[in-house]
Model the fold of this input.
Amino acid sequence: MNFCSDNTTGVSPEILDALTQANTGTAMPYGEDELTAKVQKRFNEIFECETTVFLTSTGTSANALALDALTPSYGSIYCHKDSHINCDECGAPEMFCGGAKLITLPGPHGKLHPGELETALAATNDAVHHTQPAALSISQASEAGTIYGPAEIHHLSAVAKEYGLYFHMDGARFTNALCTVECSPAELTWKAGIDVLSFGATKNGAMNAEAIIFFNQKLAREVGYMRKRTGHLHSKMRFIAAQWDAFLTNDLWLNNARHANAMAQKLKCGLETIAGAELYFPVEANELFISLPENTLQALEDAGYGFYRWHDAGSPLIRLVTSFNTTEQDINGFIQTALEAS
Amino acid sequence: MNFCSDNTTGVSPEILDALTQANTGTAMPYGEDELTAKVQKRFNEIFECETTVFLTSTGTSANALALDALTPSYGSIYCHKDSHINCDECGAPEMFCGGAKLITLPGPHGKLHPGELETALAATNDAVHHTQPAALSISQASEAGTIYGPAEIHHLSAVAKEYGLYFHMDGARFTNALCTVECSPAELTWKAGIDVLSFGATKNGAMNAEAIIFFNQKLAREVGYMRKRTGHLHSKMRFIAAQWDAFLTNDLWLNNARHANAMAQKLKCGLETIAGAELYFPVEANELFISLPENTLQALEDAGYGFYRWHDAGSPLIRLVTSFNTTEQDINGFIQTALEAS
Amino acid sequence: MNFCSDNTTGVSPEILDALTQANTGTAMPYGEDELTAKVQKRFNEIFECETTVFLTSTGTSANALALDALTPSYGSIYCHKDSHINCDECGAPEMFCGGAKLITLPGPHGKLHPGELETALAATNDAVHHTQPAALSISQASEAGTIYGPAEIHHLSAVAKEYGLYFHMDGARFTNALCTVECSPAELTWKAGIDVLSFGATKNGAMNAEAIIFFNQKLAREVGYMRKRTGHLHSKMRFIAAQWDAFLTNDLWLNNARHANAMAQKLKCGLETIAGAELYFPVEANELFISLPENTLQALEDAGYGFYRWHDAGSPLIRLVTSFNTTEQDINGFIQTALEAS
Amino acid sequence: MNFCSDNTTGVSPEILDALTQANTGTAMPYGEDELTAKVQKRFNEIFECETTVFLTSTGTSANALALDALTPSYGSIYCHKDSHINCDECGAPEMFCGGAKLITLPGPHGKLHPGELETALAATNDAVHHTQPAALSISQASEAGTIYGPAEIHHLSAVAKEYGLYFHMDGARFTNALCTVECSPAELTWKAGIDVLSFGATKNGAMNAEAIIFFNQKLAREVGYMRKRTGHLHSKMRFIAAQWDAFLTNDLWLNNARHANAMAQKLKCGLETIAGAELYFPVEANELFISLPENTLQALEDAGYGFYRWHDAGSPLIRLVTSFNTTEQDINGFIQTALEAS
Done:
């Protein structure tokens, strides 16, 4: 069993079924099809407002296109130092934004703190010598597997708005966060001040399906051109729309995320009893960061379990990610192996 | 029936089956999976040489990443004035190449002529005031639905090499061309001087699956970073690889293209007998450009047939594109309707 | 004597004097000095309106910064196929605009024709597949040494405005044009529809001094950041401002240009009498394009006269450029040598 | 008297003389003139090696063009968090490098420490998810007015070379550093591992004159095109070359810097005796960072002395910069005013 990431799994059967059902007749390409229109409406329902939506197939493109819409080339994007956009996208935001600058901030548990942000922004001015604050970006769930509640987002938003920044949420694991917080999608996004959300389905059971949701619709004006120009407008779009349609039907998205989250909690409960085990971050979504004794880790690796040492080969700290199809047996087996070695 | 484009159809059943079969167990993400490795080898077999391959999901990204590998930001890309990279990608090559320049050339039947290219290149020099010739790009089949034979490609290549240009082929309909020419894939590409091929499967029965094939492997050195940086590295890559695997198995790619080509010939034979019909380009792949009497066009539109007036609303010239699943009945029905109105 | 270009000469004595006079005391850097403020006001007087001005030291930067202010990265800039921005700036507009596209149009005597522009624009639409028309750029005087009158500019502007394009004038030789047309600077620019002018002093007697004049001031909002970000904000700005101050004082700019123009007319009158001489373009500013017998050209080259064969080494067509300090003797000597060889 | 920066002063009389002397006869433009060739040779003499030199007129362009030559768009540039390239160039390196990333490191006294660099680089790998370490850049003198000795540079170079990074020096105040270290220019640059130097003359008595010196000449191959493409190739280049020629003649560069450095030392000696005065950094070039009592600062401001509160309006920490033409009287007056208020 592979706990390396939630993208090592396949897809939900409902997703495959949806692809099969979408494969009938002709449909206009490039998003001019009926399924894409249907999905746009569905997003409006789910978020309880008018949105402008762009479907794409990778999280990096969703983030970079969203950030480009918020940021001029001479702009700065404020983000956590460990954020995906800073560490794991090979400079995609910089490329899409024409060479903008990411200003990285520290913060406990992978999360930005309003005070830290305020301090950073208060030190800026509008002189031409400096890149200009343009956007704030947070990850929900964060790279540490932690969650921002609506109040936390609202506080960050208040600082962002005070300094004229737009607010982006990287929601590669948005549904996992939503299921933990137990508020409405609207409350976790635009009602708390989010202008644009990169909404991920891939890590939660879809094939390669992401969406950029603009709550602040005026910011979306140029995105259609930029999506095409960056090669992210798919000709057979109906097959991405079909995934979103299935994903947002019968609570598939919520059920998948709830299951992954529950498996992470189960894993946490099993592992934290091991002598020497130490959790690095609160377990709030579908990721655990835990350090375990070396012989335990060896035993798990020898048993064929996949996971990453964090961040380097010999580290006792590991990351474990659960997914929509992680089974209780997978968890039990992992815990059993760990306990026996400890 | 929709003759607007070969991307208005769905996908081959074999492609869907392959997705289902790929949906078992875990697989490392981002192309580190076994299917991607298998497909890389399959490309080597098909092209009878070592290649470096990058899978992606759109033709525009395949073209732009390929061209970026050939072209510095101060470089020029020589292409046909009607080429997809010039007209239909919203400036993606310019964006990916950091602001390179496309030098467009005319040419009958949508094809570049070596003499025209030579004249253009002979007028250049290496002074710093001018962008520098870096790449030649042709479309195979061309935007006019015509084909370059190996000798034609070789002649263009000779000019390109004389002036130090690399040679790119936009093969969104490469298989359609290959089936017409009836030579080996190697003869139509690297043996004729092609350095890199954008090989399309999407228009020929796949879902959203393209491949960049570097025959000149040293040019591929930085592409992995650029693919990630432009958001085109898919996390669940196995589902793109699976499509290619099925596509290149049991001649699916060739059978699909042969069928589409045959349907285009059938359509041509049926329509050219109409009084006033005029073919604009030779029909060599799966596209017809034909002008028909206005009442014939009206009748076809009234009957619900989809096609584009070329290039503007009232034009008598239309484009008809056949695909892997166009049926003989579709063709017969279209011809019948046209004949009855004439 | 060198007729290669008007940038092979030195500078007017008044320019050197101004540099010396500016070299007293301290001045705030980066354009926060008094001379820069004075020059801004002077531009407002000369153009009879409020302008926003950015000084720079090269014509290429003036053009590229101006065009960037008008053009999104997915935009197109319409220009003459022989224009400096297309042929002689190594892709600077493409670089500054983030990979925008130059759409080149033909036109007699180096000038764009409204009908040609209208035809090109009428063929565009707002589909995301295509770069979007954003700016029109003309050179005044043109690369052929010809002039647009106010009515011609107005006609072009009418087409541009109809399609939503902004209008840029590359005025590297603006003063030469102005002296020929004999209208006011306002009539030749904003009153005829120009949004932004690259106003050159370098070719007309200054050292390295150019100015970007925004008549449409809302377009200037981001230029300060872009000027810095592209490295074109000079720290000791007073020494560029001082040149402009002297240039615009006591009609130095007008006198310099009038003289250069007069010398070009004198040269034309002397050379056109030679058997076999053929003028290629009307002589309207300070440039002649003329073909002369090869033995005449040889004699001139042997006598040490500098000029360019246009465009290639053996061509009978040459370009002759006069400047603010070309003397009557220079002209007489050139003509004499030519006549003797003919 | 203005101590805000060394770019609030004018220029050395020798520089003005050189401009006047260069203003005779014609000269080929764009650096094809004799003075530019002469200066290239002079740089070779001064640095005791073959170099490739590009003259420009701003420090930002010199830095950004140099860094672009070292860094692919997916590359990272390692630099001090307070460096000019990170804080004061509005993202020019990011723009010129096509969206590269600056990785900022802390370090006492404005200087990078090899250990800090090694730690940062050791945490990198060549996975496509991350921008790739490409260049190291230091400022000499640093933004804190401190100096790297040859041994320090060599240690940094050793780390850089181990990880395959090229090494850039921002030498806006290179001569000030050189005069403090008292080694040869070669020892302070290429012999210590520097690949390319941005060599500034502007802050040390020139008008707007900078030079990019490539010791690693193979890296210079594309710079000519990039200089043109970014608008930094001056047509009347002889007037930049003339400044360099004068600057490097009769030790003008060294004498100017030595004087500025000496004035800084004098200022330091006078101010550090004030009760409550605190030096923030060692005074090693021509800058002091010192905190003084508020009433002292008020008295100095009331007396009309110009200087910056560092970094914000009410700060007791100020920056004082001396220059080639700061006089002993200026220093004595400043100290006197400060002492009287304390």
